[in-house]
Specification:
- Helix content is 41%, strand content 23%.
- The chain has 98 residues and is α+β, with helices and mostly antiparallel strands.
- The protein is globular and about 30 Å long.
Length: 98
Amino acid sequence: MTKHCISEITKLFDTEFIFQFGDKIEYSKDIDILIVSNDFEGISTLKRRELIKRIDPNLDPICLTIRQFEMLKDSKSSLFNCIQKTQTLLYGNKTALF
């Protein structure tokens, strides 16, 4: 994921964190990212995805508010485990996360 994409996301949304996670294979066509921002409050999941995919159609975003991210952490779901094991922090403060 390019610095330009990160810059565009943080211009659109007051962003707490951006993670890349999952398979980071060079030839992979999609880029799995998790974006955490309270600016997503009141925006549907589909609209959130659409806004991010306008920046780069190869992004496969999960867009959560801070509360939703905390709920995901507390759930210990397979998605959270995948993010925790494979994540690369692209933006934000890692010490406040896990």
